[in-house]
UniProtKB/TrEMBL annotation:
The keyword Lipoprotein does not apply. SUPFAM superfamilies: P-loop containing nucleoside triphosphate hydrolases. It comes from Enterococcus malodoratus ATCC 43197. Belongs to the ABC transporter superfamily. InterPro entries: AAA+_ATPase, ABC_transporter-like_ATP-bd, ABC_transporter-like_CS, Metal_Ion_Import_ABC, P-loop_NTPase. PROSITE patterns: ABC_TRANSPORTER_1, ABC_TRANSPORTER_2. The keyword Transmembrane does not apply. This is ABC transporter ATP-binding protein. Keywords: ATP-binding, Nucleotide-binding, Transport. Transmembrane segments: none annotated. It comes from the Bacteria. One of its GO terms (molecular function) is ATP hydrolysis activity. Residues 4-236 form the ABC transporter domain.
Amino acid sequence: METIRVENLSVAYRGKVALQQIDLELSAGKLTGIVGPNGAGKSTLMKGILQLIKTQSGKIFYGEQPLNDHRKKIAYVEQRQDIDLSFPIDVFGVVLFGTYPHLKMFQRPGKKEKSFAAVCLEKVGLSDFADRQISELSGGQLQRVFIARALAQQAEWILLDEPFAGIDATSEKIIIELLKELRDEGKSIVIVHHDLHKVTDYFDEVILLNKGLIASGPVAQTYTTKNMEKTYGSEITQMLRMGGAGFAT
């Protein structure tokens, strides 16, 4: 199982620095959170890793090879606000779309691909929704459909941008348990996340970001008062302590 390595990644928008000289290695087989204040560059980092945006500098490696050579091994679940929910496609069609990277040019999914898509949909507990239009789904159901699409892609890595934004607590619990199960089965999962109270419960490793890399590594060593103050400022740690966030010392 290969790691993803980021070397000297910098991104600017309209002359303003969004990310500056990020050097980072994402551990395989882990559930990793990308955490930082609004405007810290969390989504930009994810898009930069996937080379979905123009970068000023930087190289991205999958193991020792360029990531672009292994792009189909990585699935990306964008923010809900970036998804065109008016597009006329049903749930099964979305999941089936995940099989396309493994088909030859102009080849259409056959019985084998359709059967596999059905298995992936069952895995996320939405078999009964196969014929439902995606516009009819709740936010939590939609996230699970896109996780099923990632499974149909046979992706080794699943990168999710704010998957818990705007969904209810029950749906969030279902999704995080599903992602933990996938991690235990050998998938590598990276999540852009904003709820600091959940960091210790959800993640094995955490990346603390504020336009530059503050710290990264196992939660127990990285999610500390000192590092959080560097990321957010001193006031945030007092607020989080009052809210019951568990920092390492």
